[in-house]
Amino acid sequence: MQSVVETFIRRWQGQEGGQERANYALFLTELCDLLGLPHAQPAAASTEANDYVFERVVREPNRDGAPTRRRIDLYKRDCFVLEAKQSRIFGDKSLRGAAGSAENMLPFPGMEPQTRGRRGAGRAWDVLMRNARAQAEDYVRLLPPDHEPPPFLLVCDVGHCIEIYANFRRDGKAYDIFPDRRTYRIYLEDLRDEAVRKRLVSIWSDPLSLDPARHAAKVTREIATRIAKVSQALEKAGHPTEDVAMFLMRVLFTMFAEDVDLLPRNSFKRLLKDCADRPEIFPGMMEELWRAMDEGGFSATIRHPVRRFNGEFFRNRRALPLRREEIGELAAAADHDWKDVEPAIFGTFLEQALNPGERRRLGAHYTPRAYVERLVIATVIEPLRLEWAGIRATADRQKSEGRERQAIASVQAFHDRLCNLRILDPACGTANFLYVSLELMKTLESDVLEALTDLGGQEALHGLESHTVDPHQFLGLEVNPRAAAIAELVLWIGHLQLHFRNNGGIPSEPILKAFHNIRCMDAVLVSPEDPRRPDWPEADYIVGNPPFIGGKDLRARLGQPYAQALWAAHPHMNESADFVMYWWDRSAELLTRKGSCLKRFGFVTTNSISQVFQRRVMERYLGAKSPLSLVMAIPDHPWTKVTRDSAAVRIAMTVAEAGKLEGQLMQVVSEDGVATDTPVILFRETIGTINSDLTTGANMGAAAPLSANFGLSSRGVSLHGKGFIVTAKEAGHLGRDRHPGLEKHIRNYRNGRDLTKRPREVMAIDLFGCTQDAVRRLYPEVYQHLLLTVKPERDRNNRATYRDNWWIFGEPRRELRPALAGLSRFVATVETAKHRVFQFLDADVLPDNMLVVIATADPADLGILSSRWHTIWASAQGGTLEDRPRYSKSRCFDPFPFPVLSNTDRQAIGLLGEALDAHRKRVLADHPHLTLTGLYNVLDLIVSGTHPDRLERRDRRIFEDGLVLILKELHDELDMAVAAAYGWPADLAHTDILAHLLALNKERTREEKRGIVRWVRPDYQIERFGSETEKALQIEADLGPALGIAARGSLPPFPSRNDAAQTALVIDALIAAGGAVDAAGIAGRFRQGQRVRPAVASVLASLYRMGLVSTADMGRTFAFRRAA
Known about the structure:
- The protein is globular and about 120 Å long.
- α11 packs antiparallel against α14 (432-456).
- It is an alpha+beta fold.
- Among the domains are: 2-210; 213-361; 367-458 and 467-505 and 512-521, no CATH class; 1048-1120, Arc Repressor Mutant, subunit A (Orthogonal Bundle), CATH 1.10.10.
- The strands form seven sheets. A nine-stranded mixed sheet has the order 12-11-10-13-14-16-15-17-18, sandwiched between helices. Strands 1, 2, 3, 4, 5, 6 and 7 form a seven-stranded mixed sheet that branches. A four-stranded antiparallel sheet has the order 19-26-23-24.
């Protein structure tokens, strides 16, 4: 085998430059021969069959919708995407990039370089490989929808090396160096190592076998099971639970220290073997070893000098006595390779092992690492990666302009910032979120250190040995003392694992530092006796999984004193809000506080977060003057691993950032392997403004009330006295036919049931406008009736107006009466009803409080309100009572933008509105068994596709007597007529209807600010409101050009001396553009205008070289490469 390897190395080593297209396929084919792997298959005409081919075609949509064909150099489905290059250096002219007309000097696809170089030729080679990596990541995004993102991404410099990047989450986003910073780049000479060859074979043939989580979870569970047995035995012997827990954590860390060579190899295993034969010596030997580990120095127990560990674990050196059986369990646990332990789940397992109440469920109820990663990446890592991309491009630009020292300083400054960031989990438990944050930040740090090495060699790393991402940055609040201790253990084990994986050397002493970064405290309440919110440590990012307790269960689960104190400490919170929302609320307050250092927060919550009591917490901040935005949300996601002994738990994830920003809504479309340690969840992703109900699209909460609708709608009267209602016979006894004018005060009365069922034929005594003396004098029978039936109840009312005006309705609707005056009829709908039906009521009908009235007699208005355009709007805007939609005047009617009707539109819609109203009234009058609810129940069945012949007997009778097909036809014609009036397609989907109406509402709002009001009923409204409204309105200018800028002076400046700030602003402009834009367009966004165009072009050049932007027109315009 070695001779074959040597032949391959000699054949390809030194093949510099050359023709990449001609060489890469031959190189990779011969590599497959060397590794004993099958060759790529011939490409087929149908790309669906090309699962392992060279030149695999993918299609990238252009702005005009036409796809551009791109080619993956080598693709193996479910394994890898490979992008090949062959070392070449672009000429000096290309590298200068931004000098002069920079946008015309970029190294664009298809342009042949003028000179060739070799591996390690410095910046050009590094740029080549980085750009290849970015290309490969682009190809992952362009794979067909039925192809999952592969776990590996390979970048091959033909004849020199292969760089390996992995993403076992299978989300297609960020691929990180694999397996570590020291070994991710495989050079030709490294192929002599059998382990390297096996790694490549696995990437080709069984890539998921390289996922550390697959092995780590099993090892971690086995160790925890052993520890659980020892813990149980010690508790049975009478040792306190907390003493047992702390003792076993010291034992576990000792096992780990031995396996990573912080203790002499096998020294602890020999100690356990010796003690198994003589258990009585175990406590003394352990305490002596732990003394040496705490202080440093010689240990007689293992007969060897011991490094100084210090920290918190070994200050208490007490060792508990064990029997031979328990020592044997510890020896079995120590035999495992502790480098394989997964800290992300180790803490949970250990907590279950040490907790008597949880022990029986060991390993049955925990959160897979992939789920934790999903939230940590969205909250912490994605913004840091974006920031790092800008810094990397800044450094590239600085070096291309001959400013090498500034380039190194830029990267060193980012590294310093990375090492000083603080991540807080205010409900940290056993630190799984903090550990995953630590590991992912260490991975990012590796990328930063690689860039420093590329820029300045090892000298650029001088002084950074002790300045690194470490546990002091990861802060936790935890109320459970045992969990808090485990959290610290988890962070240190994880940190040391990462140190040895990436650096290899022994860390400086003391190996464990007492950072006190995990605080044992309640995060939302000082104490029941002191009902205040505790202070949280300052942090740049907050992420975690607070406890799930429903608002209705707080008293029962936490106790009455705690619940009362919690509510007292948070008076702005609704008592029905879930417990987790107290963490959300506090984080939101910190995020929006002036001068806050907090950049983002992300939480796991119950999946009921989009329901009303939880939504109110979010709405308070989403709609605030200084708002925050949801930048990522998953409304429904599995959480704990599904096992035979553990039910599935569903959660939501939300990530928030200050400002008005678009977000990424992720909706689960498939779940696979949820009963394993490596679940695969696929999502449908939507970019847009995320609303408080965790939807995108039309944010109905943003709809503003329109002056055009003012003064026309109100709820009906509220009686506040049963004596106001009388029958027609009782009205006669009270003198309705004898006393002149009384007929105007005893009127027909209708409530919701009168409209949806059958009218009760009752009347109401309405004395609005009459004084007490006038009623007694003119209508004495009425006066005595109310004195007997209403006044006693009113006398007991707390409100003075109700007591003093006892003969008048409690809410007589003073504002509605002028609008109804002079009308022969008006429109009404039942406030809470299964079906949203509008109808005309005669002017002599007095509407009840459960009716919403619209003061118009125009049948065109009735037609518009009865169309799907308004009923869909009303359904989205109104709330519900149980399962029945509610029609809120302030949310459903006031913001609704009526179409501007031509005479033709008004006549067409009016005729249909009249026909609809007449048809319903006619069939109801002809058939006493019919009701409006019954008619629309059957109409729903017909609309949903039920054939009339398949209706049940009762529904069939309603269908026939109610002429329901005619009812359907009238609604269909009305929908089409109203669509024509708006100028929109009649077949728009519900979501599109809402989006169109919301956009029209915003347009009308802008018009009204300029004094243009499109009154619904101008003959009534202008006379009363027109002139006063117009005087009050502030007349504003048009919004200006597409950039939304009125004057150059209001534009932000482009910084002249801060390279990193320039890069960040250009990236922001590219993201905001949402598509391709040129240097001039970006320059126009800044106060200096085209004077900063060369600097913008220089930044674009660096972004292109770093693979962060793409161009489809040889560098005239650029688009930001979004993550998949």
